[in-house]
Amino acid sequence: MAIRSYKGVMPSFNSSVYVDESSVLVGDIKLGDNSSVWPLVAARGDVNYIRIGERSNIQDGSVLHLSRATKNNPDGYPLIIGDDVTVGHKVMLHGCVLGNRILVGMGAIVMDNVTVEDDVIIGGGSLVPPNKRLESGYLYVGSPVKQARPLTEQELAFLKISADNYVQLKDEYLVEVY
Rounded CA gap, 30 and 10, in Å? Predict the structure, then answer.
C-alpha cells in the first residue's frame, strides 16, 4: 500500500478496513470501521483533513482532496464522508461534506463547500458546483446538478444494501490479502 505521511501525520484505520495496494493515501485521513478503498484511488489529506465513516466505500479511480485554509476561508474545506456511503468509480470529491447513506454515481464531481444531506443519490456524471446543499431523500442529476425527484422506498433501501455489499466484498478481499 502507498500509505504516506505528510508533515508527520499518517492515514489511520484498523484491520477491518480494506485499502487496495494500488491506492495512494497521504496525510490526515481517518477511515471508519469496515470501510474500503479500491484500486487506483488517490486521497490527499495534506492541506486539510479527510474523514471517511463506517461501512463506506471509495471505488476505483476516485480522487479525494480538500481546500486549504485561506484569509477569506480560515478553516478551508475538509472532506467528510458519512457512514454507509458508496462512492462510485472515477468520482471526484473536493472539500465537501457527504452525510449518511449516499450513493455518488460513477464519474460525478462534488466540489468545495457542498453539503449532501443523508439519503441522497447523485447520478453518474453529475456536477455539483461549489456551495450547494442537496436535500435529503432526492435523486440529483445533471451538470450542473438539479433535483430530479424523490427517492423511492426501493432506492432508499438500496443505499444501505449497496454499502453492505461492499462490506462483504472487502471482507472477501481481506481474506485473500492477509
Answer: 9
- Exposed/middle/buried for 107, CB within 10 Å: 0-12, 13-18, 19+? middle
Domains of the chain in start order, with CATH, are 2-177 (2.160.10.10)
Tell me the pLDDT tens digit for each residue of 9-49. Answer: 999 999 999 999 999 999 999 999 999 999 999 999 999 99
Give 60: exposed, middle or buried? Use CB within 10 Å, 0-12, 13-18, 19+: middle
d(C-alpha 67, C-alpha 49), whole Å: 9
Q: Note the pTM of the prediction, 2 decimals.
A: 0.96
Question: Hey, which bits of the chain come out as E strands?
Answer: 2-4, 18-19, 24-31, 36-37, 42-52, 57-58, 63-65, 79-81, 86-87, 92-94, 97-98, 102-104, 109-110, 115-116, 120-122, 127-128, 133-134, 138-142, 145-150
CA distance linking residue 62 with residue 120, whole number of Å:
19
